[in-house]
Input
Amino acid sequence: MRVFLTGASGHIASALIPEMIGAGHTVVGLVRSDQAAAKAESLGAEVHLGDLSDLDGLAAAAAKADGVVHLAFDHQRQSGGDLEGAVGADLAAVQTIGAALAGSGKPFVGTNATGGIALAGFQGVLTEDVSLAGGPRIDAENAVLALAGQDVRASVVRLPPAVHGNGGYGFVSGLIEIARAAGSAGYLGEGGNRWGATALEDASRAYRLALESARAGSRIHAVAEAGIAMRDIAETIGHRLGVPTAAVTAEDAATRFGFLTPFVSMDNPVSSRSTRETLGWAPSRPGLIAALESDPLLTPSPR
Ligand SMILES: NC(=O)c1ccc[n+]([C@@H]2O[C@H](COP(=O)([O-])OP(=O)(O)OC[C@H]3O[C@@H](n4cnc5c(N)ncnc54)[C@H](OP(=O)(O)O)[C@@H]3O)[C@@H](O)[C@H]2O)c1
Output
């Protein structure tokens, strides 16, 4: 398949491009700078220069492809306080790609974050059949899945907060930076609230399987570890950085965790049973704690 991939210079793409090429697909990656182009090309992708806001360019690239995987999300805009802008740009992009694919029978794999569903009010173990009426990023998920009714083999991969590999840990990378700066690794309250996790290679395999064979309208949980207590994550970070681990009070949370505060507060356990059964997805890489424990770059900060 000739696959149009947005977010081709990002963390997930660093494993997904080799995964797709290894399976015989050709990847055309959306990039918005020469630096991003060099990154995607070094992994074997062709590039399409453009921005998520260039809707005509997105539509043209999607129409030329046999399938689309949408990873791009403006995290800089999110962490800078403009979540609404980042979410709006994402929704416009999926609507544009969807319109270009309507009636084609081609696959379109979108992306959502399990954490956003917890933050939108869902409580308990998130399963693939749970959908919410709306909310940040949930509107884009619903827009992608609605394309199943327009002859698009549309699916959405939901990722946990910690996708780890190639030197990155998703939101856990943010916790590591914060712990280095603060001189202690923090968690909120008792730290019993949980985040799911998945190794990058396993997450990439889930995307490829979705592209190749997901049923139209399916939600895919690329979540290998259902829920790791935040206290365990903090203790591992503290151990690796050589700093103490400490509970942070609710009053100090925003100062300590910044835009990550709602995520650090949430309990987000996730089941991936249906994904494993329907796609034959079998994650095999070491878990988050083992990855943190064995990362040679995680060393005590100089004092
Ligand atoms: N990694 C995780 O643990 C994790 C967890 C949950 C959900 N997710 C979701 O998975 C997807 C991929 O995540 P990631 O970790 O690969 O993200 P990432 O490393 O931050 O990469 C984001 C990608 O999107 C591109 N991008 C951002 N704004 C753009 C714009 N306006 N126009 C064109 N491209 C733009 C970036 O390009 P530049 O290189 O030019 O900035 C980059 O290629 C995202 O939707 C993310 O929210 C990831």
Observations:
- The chain has two domains: 2-158+199-208, 163-196+226-293.
